[in-house]
Each structure stands twice: as structure tokens, then as C-alpha cells.
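Quick illustration, no need to memorize.
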Amino acid sequence: TSASPILRLNDQNVSGLFHRIIGGGNAGLEIGADLGNVLSSAYIRFDVGNSEKVRIIESGNVGIGTTNPGYALDIKRTSGHAEQRIISTDGTNRARLRLDANGQLAEIYFQDNGSAKNAIWNSADDSSLNFYNFSIGNVMSLAYTTGHVTFPLANQKISGSATSTGSFGHLSIPGQAVVGISTLKTITSGSSLQVNDQGGTSVGVDYRHVTNDVGKGYTQRFLASDQGGNVVEYGRIKTEIIGRGSGAQTGMFRFSPVREGTATERLNIGSGGIEVPAGNISGSVTSTGSFGKLV
């Protein structure tokens, strides 16, 4: 093989301490500090403009702007933003940052003056993407296989508003849920869904049928489980549009108990009053007004 020129620098004060630069031949260019390994804190330093800019210490850590790098790559700026830029300029290839933990967590830490506050990490167990808060724990997890979003901590609050341009297949809340004003009293024992509203109006829930066609409306179905564990329906309340015009609509409430899967209307309330389509009225009632017609 071709010979490689060597520049060797011997230290006159420390026995056995020397540095070396090798170039050419099959070696490429090699820069070595403390080849005799007699120091415990050897380093290679690069200066620009009569000041140090980069340092490689004996552990292999590289420091930019710091003389004592504590990480594999340690970047420090005393003024201005400490920014790193990865750019692809050919318009074809992508700019990528890869974190490969080889069976361990791949993490990005967000710190304040050395104190860890938040982190984003990829689970080595199920490849889920997780958002972690060092004060309270894992606050949100995005599943790798399904894309489902879960909130592992109890009593988390989601504030603000959002608009979806797509559709939701299902919204599943495994347990009690409170919707609306968070400062109002939270859910009480025995309730599974609580809607809080506050202010000049008392609209807690709006039900809308998008087409608004005559005869259409919104149906509330009441479900339970039978002794065999099957889901059964036992009642319905339907709000139906009877008359629809520009700025004028007439609605009706229809109450229907369900027996063996068949819903039968028993009581309707509309603009004309109350009607009983089927069945009997039992019990007693007192009127302080008058009946127009009793049939």
C-alpha cells in the first residue's frame, strides 16, 4: 500500500503524550489527540476567528459553543437562537430527522433551564406515539396500528373548539362524562352524562336532522341490556317536523314505548295539543281551565 505522511507532535512536558495527523494513502485524513492515552481529559479543539467553536472530548461528545459537552452533540448559544436546520434543496428528496432507539424509547425532551417539562416519545412495546408531561404523566397516546387517540389520565380537560371536515365513526367515553362549562358542579353519582350550560339561554344540547324534510326529525332511543347480555331498546322519543316553510316550522314530540323490538306511539304532543294514538288513559286529573272537546 501507499505510504501515508504523518505529522507527529510530541509534548515535552508530559511523558508519552503525543498527537498525530495522518494524510494520504489508504488512511484518508486522521487527526488524533493523546495517542498514548496518558491523559484523562484529552480533546480536539477547532478555533475560528481566534476563538473556540467546536470541541471533541475524550468520551466522544461533540460540543458547539461549549467546552464541556455533556451529550453526544451538545450545542450552546450565548446570544441569538440556538437553531438547527435540515434542508433538502433539490425538490425531490425529503428533509428527515430519524430517531432509532433499537428496541428502546425514542424521545424528544422539552426542558427549561435543564429541568425536563414535556416529552414526545415512541413506545418500544406497541410503537404508539405518546405525549408526556413530567408533572402529571402521560397525557395522550396515538396508537400505531389503529390511529386511535386515548387519554390515559383521568379527569383530563379538553378546552377550546374544533371543526371536523370529515366524520367520526364512534365517540366512545368509557365512564362518566361532563360537557360544557367546566366551572359548574361536576357530575353527580348515578349520572353518566352531564351537560353544563350557563348564561342568558339554557340550551344544553342541540339535536339537528340535516335534511329538515317533513316527517323527519331526531329520535332518542333508550337502550339497556337484557339478562342474556343483549342490547335491547325499551323506549323512544321522536321530535318530528310536521310543517316546514321559510322561517316557519311546526314540530311534534312522539313518545313510543318499545316491546320486543316494536315501537308503538302512545302519546304525541304538538302545536294542536296532546293526543293519545293508542292505549288507555288511567288515573285522575284536575283541570283549572276548560276542555274544548272530550272524546
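The two ends are 117 Å apart (CA to CA).
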